[in-house]
Amino acid sequence: MSSQKKRTFQIEAFKHRVVVDPKYAEKTWKVLEHAIHEIYNHNASGLSFEELYRNAYNMVLHKFGEKLYSGLVTTMTSHLKEISQSIESAQGEIFLEELNRKWIDHNKALQMIRDILMYMDRTFIPSSHKTPVHELGLNLWRDVVIHSSKTQARLRDTLLELVLRERNGEVINRGLMRNIIKMLMDLGLSVYQEDFEKHFLSVSANFYCLESQKFIETCDCGDYLKKAERRLNEEIERVSHYLDPRSEIKITNVVEKEMIDSHMHTLVHMENSGLVNMLVDDKYEDLGRMYSLFRRVPTGLTVVKDVMTAFVRDTGKQLVMDPERLRDPVDFVQRLLDLKDKYDKIINMSFTNDKTFQNALNSSFEHFINLNARSPEFISLFVDDKLRRGLKGVGEEDVEIVLDKVMMLFRYLQEKDVFEKYYKQHLAKRLLSGKTISDDAERSLIVKLKTECGYQFTSKLEGMFTDMKTSYDTMQGFYASQSDVGDSPSLVVHVLTTGSWPTQPSPQCNLPSELLGVCEKFRAYYLGTHNGRRLSWQTNMGTADLKATFGKGQKHELNVSTYQMCVLMLFNNADRLTCKEIEQATGIPLLDLKRCLQSLACVKGKNVLRKEPMSKDIAEDDTFFFNDKFTSKFFKVKIGTVVAQRESEPENLETRQRVEEDRKPQIEAAIVRIMKSRRTLDHNNIVAEVTKQLQSRFLPNPVVIKKRIESLIEREFLERDRVDRKLYRYLA
């Protein structure tokens, strides 16, 4: 193909100059000015917008944009002044309606004018950095109409009066309000804020300041909170209907400050209706309202939390220190659980399960439960009561609920080792007497304790269950090895591992001669099958079944403790015996003997013995004799010793001393572990580290820690620095 030749095109200017009519600009502007007048006078239907657009286009094209723009400003200003006078002359409620109607008309006119002057808007205005037509129209409306000397203040006052009337319960034209407020916002955020919002917030603050003061003087706390909540919701609703959404946070802050923040302390402490009364009377709805309102102000929830904490601590302190409550340990613990349930429900239902309040409640319970040194003992007694009889016939899930509640109280204890000491005693009695309602429940609680405190805490408790199983197998083997048992009493022996069970050195009780033979047979059998072991009878922990014949040949089977059996068997050969004589014959410790005699002679319906003189207290010279007149509708009669009761003061002191002795090696072991790791440490840091390590079981006393350090220095585990006497070194 042959290549095409390049062709060059050239555009030449007009050879003849276009001549423009000298009066063109003036004539054209007159046409456009007339059109603007017609638009404002609602006569736009006869206008040719295409022709008008072309005229405006040509004016800009022929460099008359400035004349067009300045003429527009002058014409619009003239019309807006007329409009302003019309609005100012409107009286009463017609004022806002007239303003709204003229604003709508102005917007329509402005839209038409902008369409006609679109070319100027797109070319001349950007290049000359002037205000666009629509924005110009808004600015002129703002300056000429809204900010006129007679309209600005009147408009503000009219709007604020309508808001006040609505607050006082009157129905207002919300649609009109919405239109006027939107007009202010369309004129610019600063117009809305300066001409209305600033004054609205100020007037609102004064309104709610006066109203809250009136409410405080005439309402109780619950009613006040309802009114405050209603006012808050009204303001939120008002914003949604006709105010700028950005005003919501501002007006709610005003209501919160004037109605809540300014009166917080007065409300929570209000006599007969404040926070304390709400807590006492379980007013969940009022408490929930207080929580939701107070959380809106910076320190609101802290005030509520502090008052609740102080009241719970005071209530708990009264409960745990009340001498009347201490008489019944089970009731004592049940009241603690009821108190915890009460406040758990309040926090759950009214305080949306707020963790801050939960932590405050836990802190309060930990504080007052540990004010009473007997709390560990009482919690163990509560468990003992429930696992003996209190949970009988209760479903498995309900048993777990009770055990979980017990564990909750257990977590509050600072002296968990004291609880362990008592729990071990009570568990031993339940297992040996066979009076536990459920092995599953017992094991479930031990699993919970193990999860909470670790294997060391429950190893001995688990060992007790192992001994019970081993003892059953041992008795099976014993009776299989006996070819002739004869008429000797049947014997069931529980062989307890020393260290696992809470056995205390106790004087040997003198068993009846009828039992000695079979006891010796078992001893011989056991020692014959287990080399290197020793057996010692723990008669204070056993039980027995006796067949007894009373007056008129009435027969009963009595379920008694080993001590009670020893006492009753004496009356086979004696009619009357004094307490002193029974003590000498049986060798039972006097305190235990008095408990036995109380249960045998002083409990109505179980009094197989009679006592002279008749009283609940036992004296050494009191006389006892067999009660021939004893009757019962049951063949089997269980005569329980006075057990599972709170210890007497001497017993409690003795238990405490044993606990303190048990703590010494634990404190020493912790000190050695720490020093072995750190090698050198000062006294204060040793105390802090030991406390940290042992606080899951008990809170060690710094004085005791110091004594254990001194003991370790004497035994050459540690040495004191020669220069700094408070610095210690570990001796490898």
TrEMBL record:
The keyword Amino-acid biosynthesis does not apply. The lineage of its organism: Eukaryota, Viridiplantae, Streptophyta, Embryophyta, Tracheophyta. One of its GO terms (biological process) is ubiquitin-dependent protein catabolic process. It comes from Arachis hypogaea. Belongs to the cullin family. GO terms for molecular function: ubiquitin protein ligase binding. The keyword Electron transport does not apply. InterPro entries: Cullin, Cullin-like_AB, Cullin_homology, Cullin_homology_sf, Cullin_N, Cullin_neddylation_domain, Cullin_repeat-like_dom_sf, WH-like_DNA-bd_sf. Residues 374-601 form the Cullin family profile domain. This is Cullin family profile domain-containing protein. Keywords: Isopeptide bond, Ubl conjugation, Ubl conjugation pathway.
